Amino acid sequence: MSWIVTGGAGYIGAHVVRALADAGLAPVVLDDLSSGVASFVPEGVPFVQGSILDRDLVEKALRDHRADGVIHVAGFKYAGVSVQRPLHTYAQNVEGTRVILLACEAAGVSNIVFSSSAAVFGTPDVPLVVEETAKRPASPYGESKLIGEWMLRDQAIATAESEHPLRHTSLRYFNVVGSADPTVYDVSPHNLFPIVFEALLAGRTPRINGDDYATEDGTNVRDYVHVGDIAAAHVAAAKRLAAGESIEPAYNLGSGDGLSVKQIMDAVVRVTGIDFTPEIGPRRAGDPDRIVATGELAARDLDWKMRYSVDEMVRTGWEARHAAE
């Protein structure tokens, strides 16, 4: 038996693939390489190149590899860009998830771990986000992830009395950083760590967008979680589903306390040895002061914990980026 990892050639998906392999769960990558990197797929791991919108291809992959379940990481994940490209976002994230659910039903595959997002919460009005915090997504991306959660819920209800009732959980990511393998690094042009790293490599000074927020040092506070911990949570969820154990419909993979952008910048100076003072730019529209989530539910069920310090997050990400030079 195996687990199909959609988007398994991407930054997060490739880490999930490695964690599954280390746990003996036989990963299979399905990726169209629109943002993934072929070299991120480990040697010896089966690789099906194609789109999650291709139902025949998805169903064939499930049948050919006798899949025990799907870890659905693939999707269009750029919240800001999704405002300009809503239809593309919905096609990839909503229609793509629908196609995967159809293929799973046809192939008799009952287990799915869905990569959701903190974006389902939008700008919460509470200092600490829990799973039940009101969902007010502020972008088509966030909306598409919330719709994905709804589709899983509804399909589970619809198949409850069938031969293969759907079992599922959604893991809500926050700011995923670092690297657990020196050959895999974050290639996103929109995430803080790669933005800072690319600026330093190009000899530019990194920028902070606003330093007058209502936080301890005036900069935004967010959850930053290591990609290795994220991958481990996926493996724990897959094992729980495959064993038929009880599982929550969604988990917040949050840090519980958060880090400010200035704290991240200070860590970058310490780790890289490149002394710089960040430029201060204007606030970005809609950026809240603080968004931090508790990970208590995931700690209870998925062995979720913060295994890396902020310096280790920066160091592993920086080293992986350097190894790609």
TrEMBL record:
Per the record, what are the reactions this protein catalyses? UDP-alpha-D-glucose = UDP-alpha-D-galactose
Give the top-level enzyme category: isomerase
Q: Which GO terms describe its molecular function?
A: UDP-glucose 4-epimerase activity
Cross-referenced InterPro entries, in alphabetical order? Epimerase_deHydtase, NAD(P)-bd_dom_sf, UDP_G4E
Q: Which residues form the NAD-dependent epimerase/dehydratase domain?
A: 4-254
Q: What is its EC number?
A: 5.1.3.2
This protein's pathway: Carbohydrate metabolism; galactose metabolism
What this protein needs as a cofactor is: NAD(+)
Sorted UniProt keywords: Carbohydrate metabolism, Isomerase, NAD
Which stretches are annotated as coiled coil? none
The record's Pfam families line, in alphabetical order, gives: Epimerase
Q: Which NCBIfam families match?
A: galE
Member of which family?
Belongs to the NAD(P)-dependent epimerase/dehydratase family.
Q: What is this protein called?
A: UDP-glucose 4-epimerase
Organism encoding this protein = Microbacterium profundi
- Which gene name does the record give? galE
